[in-house]
Design brief:
253 residues
Length: 253
């Protein structure tokens, strides 16, 4: 009985230590600093210590199982370790990545463009948890007055059918960028985002996605959107403008 308890203790010690090592690896090495693959070397020491301790405990467990010729127990334990480690990697990669990024956003330790780039990587993951965490990071970035974050948030809300939130997001994009456009700051970038935000708002009001239809508002935003030559949907927008004008009996130019 005593030997069995010792073996169990070694097994669970190895699982806990390896789990802590994985968590510390994500937290301390800035593994996601540049979208993954970058490791801050000085942060590797603590996770390495726990990894060694975990492997040492597991090695003792293996030796005891082999000595006792309890191979079934050994195979089951190896499978358990594999499942647990895989689980730690899966959830750590999601949780620590978003938590680390949120800390950087709140501490103003990351630029807007770098943050959007990392959030885009999270969204490309296609896991529901990644999408949820990406939205939380975008919300934190909007508190810093980021039009890019509002725009990306609006796109996410629009894609998942939350048209009221999408409308609010795109209106915030317009409120932030319209004054900057007047100042002439980074015209093409601002104009691109403004044009698409206007188009989204036109679509929302034209079809009543967030409530009742409002053809006049839709026409206003479509006409704002089409004034930008680099909008790739200009033909589609013009068709929508012509259709609305026919409905409200305005002359088509």
């Amino acid at each position: 009985m005593k030997d069995f308890l010792k073996k169990t203790l070694y097994l669970w010690l190895s699982i806990i230590c390896i789990g802590i090592a994985i968590g510390l690896f994500y937290l301390l090495t800035d593994f996601f600093e540049h979208g993954g693959g970058f490791i801050r070397v000085k942060g590797i020491i603590a996770p390495a210590v726990f990894a060694i301790l975990g492997l040492w405990s597991f090695w003792i467990f293996i030796k005891k199982s082999i000595t006792e010729k309890n191979y079934l127990e050994l195979i089951a334990s190896v499978l358990l370790i594999a499942v647990v480690v895989t689980g730690f990697f899966y959830f750590s990669s999601i949780g620590f990545k978003s938590a680390h990024l949120l800390d950087k956003i709140k501490a103003d330790e990351i630029t807007e463009d770098e943050c959007i780039s990392q959030i885009t990587i999270m969204l490309n993951d296609n896991r529901p948890e990644s999408r949820t965490n990406a939205i939380e990071c975008l919300k934190a970035l909007t508190e810093k007055g980021s039009a890019q974050a509002w725009f990306k948030l609006g796109e996410l809300y629009f894609d998942q059918g939350d048209y009221g939130d999408a409308e609010n997001s795109f209106i915030n994009v317009c409120n932030i960028l319209e004054p900057k456009e007047v100042e002439g700051t980074d015209y093409k970038h601002i104009g691109h985002d403004l044009s698409l935000a206007y188009e989204y708002l036109g679509n929302i009001y034209n079809t009543g996605l967030s409530g009742d239809t409002d053809k006049q508002k839709a026409l206003l935003y479509y006409e704002r959107a089409i004034q930008y030559p680099f909008n790739m949907h200009s033909n589609r927008i013009q068709s929508a403008i012509d259709s609305i004008k026919q409905v409200i009996n305005e002359p088509i130019i």
